[in-house]
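Whiteboard transcription, Tuesday session. T.W. wrote the C-alpha cells on the left side:
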C-alpha cells in the first residue's frame, strides 16, 4: 500500500529532492511551502512521472498557529500520514546584537515552535495506526555554538535534542524520529541566510541536495536516531565532545568569517 508523506519546505533544496525520492517509490505526497507556484509545478512533474497523488498547500509556517492550521487542513483530506518530514527552516547571518529581532523571532517560530507542534499533532495518529516515521531536519551546526549564526545553531541544537529524546519515548510504539544533520548543502540556504561570503559557504564544500536527501530518506526508513551526512561531518561532530569548548567556539567563528 502506498505510503503518504507530508513534507514541509518542499519547494526547493532538500525538501524538493525528498519529494522526488518518495514519489519514485510510488508514495503519495502532501507538499507544504510558502511558494505555491513552485509546489504546483512540482505536483505536475511528480503526478505525470510517477502516477502518484500530490496535494499542495501554500502556507507560511513561520506564522503563529501555522501548525494547527496545517493539521486541520490535512485532517480534512482524510488521509493517514505515514512519514512526516519537517524540512522547512531558515538561518540568519550576523552578530546577535545587530540582527533584526522580528526575523529571528520568525526563525524561532519556524525552526522550533512549528516543528515541535507538528510532531506533537501527528505523533498520536502514528501511534494509533501502529507505526510511522518522522524526520526533523537539524544541521551539523547543532553540535556546537556558532558565532555569527548563534540563533540558527541554537534552534538546530533544540531540534536535535528534542528528536533524540522523543524518539526514545515513542520507539517502542512503532514510531521513529530521525534528526537529519546536513553540512553545507546546495540548497539556497546560504543565499537566504546572506552568508555566501563565508569560508563555510565556499562552493567546493557544498554537497548536492539530492545526495543529502537520499541519505536522509534511507536513514529515516531505517529508523536512525541521528543521521549526520558525510564522513568528515560525522568525525567533526564526534570530535566536539573531546575538544575544549572555547576552542570549538573559536573554530566555529573562524569558519563563519570571510
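and on the right, the sequence the group agreed on:
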Amino acid at each position: 500500500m502506498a505510503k503518504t508523506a507530508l513534507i514541509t519546505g518542499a519547494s526547493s533544496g532538500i525538501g524538493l529532492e525528498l519529494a522526488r525520492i518518495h514519489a519514485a517509490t510510488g508514495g503519495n505526497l502532501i507538499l507544504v511551502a510558502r511558494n505555491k507556484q513552485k509546489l504546483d509545478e512540482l505536483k505536475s512533474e511528480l503526478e505525470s512521472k510517477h502516477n502518484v497523488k500530490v496535494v499542495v498547500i501554500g502556507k507560511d509556517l513561520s506564522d503563529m498557529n501555522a501548525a494547527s492550521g496545517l493539521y486541520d487542513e490535512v485532517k480534512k483530506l482524510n488521509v493517514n500520514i505515514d512519514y512526516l518530514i519537517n524540512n522547512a527552516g531558515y538561518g540568519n547571518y550576523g552578530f546577535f546584537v545587530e540582527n533584526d529581532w522580528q526575523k529571528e523571532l520568525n526563525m524561532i517560530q519556524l525552526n522550533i515552535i512549528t516543528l515541535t507542534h507538528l510532531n506533537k499533532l501527528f505523533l498520536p495518529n502514528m501511534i494509533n495506526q501502529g507505526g510511522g516515521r518522522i524526520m526533523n531536519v537539524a544541521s551539523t551546526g547543532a553540535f556546537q555554538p556558532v558565532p555569527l549564526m548563534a540563533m540558527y545553531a541554537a534552534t538546530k541544537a533544540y531540534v536535535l535534542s528534542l528528536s533524540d529524546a522523543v524518539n526514545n519515548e515513542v520507539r517502542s510504539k512503532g514510531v521513529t524520529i530521525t534528526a537529519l544533520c546536513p553540512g553545507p548543502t546546495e540548497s539556497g540556504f546560504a543565499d537566504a541566510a546572506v552568508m555566501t561570503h563565508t569560508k563555510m559557504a565556499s562552493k567546493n564544500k557544498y554537497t548536492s541536495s539530492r545526495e543529502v536527501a537520499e541519505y536522509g530518506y534511507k536513514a529515516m526508513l531505517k529508523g536512525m536516531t541521528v543521521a549526520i551526512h558525510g564522513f568528515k561531518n560525522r568525525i567533526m561532530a564526534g570530535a566536539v565532545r573531546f575538544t575544549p569548548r572555547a576552542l570549538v567556539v573559536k573554530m566555529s567563528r573562524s569558519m563563519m568569517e570571510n
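Someone added at the bottom: The first helix runs from residue 13 to 24.
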